[in-house]
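Final report, Chapter 2: Outcomes

The project's central promise was a pipeline that accepts a single protein chain and returns its three-dimensional structure in a standardized token representation, suitable for archiving and comparison. That pipeline is now operational. To close this chapter, we reproduce one record exactly as it appears in the project archive, with the input sequence first and the structure output second.
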Amino acid sequence: MCYRTEGDIEATKIAKYWEKRLAEGYKGQPAKEFNGFAYPELPVSTCEEPDLIQPMRWGLIPAWVKDETQAQEMQSHTLNAVGETIFDKPSFRSILRKRCLIYVTGFYEWQLAGKSKIKYLLKVRDMPSFALGGLYETWINRKTEIPYTGFSIITCRANELMAKIHNTKKRMPFILNDKEKAAEWLADLSKEEIKMQLKPFPEERMEALQQS
């Protein structure tokens, strides 16, 4: 799965590389590590505004959620969305109309080695930033009427490199490093077209850096 990412680059550089504009007033705060369970804001582009990079919270809350208690519980269970079952889950009904790109410079995973866990930073070779495919939804707090928009990162089966590192569940985030493929992800796609895209990223394009 994917619960921690690296965003070690300024939002202006992300916008320049991906040839997009930044939301007004958005500067973004680079960080070596973002913890999904802290529900951080990450730079995102959406189907609705594909040429814009804007901040969005990690952790999707479906529009049908009734109250704050249910919303908080749901948020912690939607950091990731399993690609193979995404169309079967009520929480991810927005996949057909609300897909997004989450811009990162890397993500972290742990390898189980006996009783120890070895931490790795995974990156795409020769890329200042790359995108993870996701989906998003807006929930309206019925008590305060304040909207909250959050995203989930979609995961797929691991490539050979990731299967060796994430050697328990053997999963990896759905990676889009190509501008053309990233633009297609935000285009109008059918259910079958979405399924066809959810494939592991080539392992030869990735590097794994063991962390101390």
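Archive annotation: The CA atoms of residues 140 and 147 lie 4 Å apart.
This record, like all others produced under the grant, will remain available to the consortium after the project formally closes.
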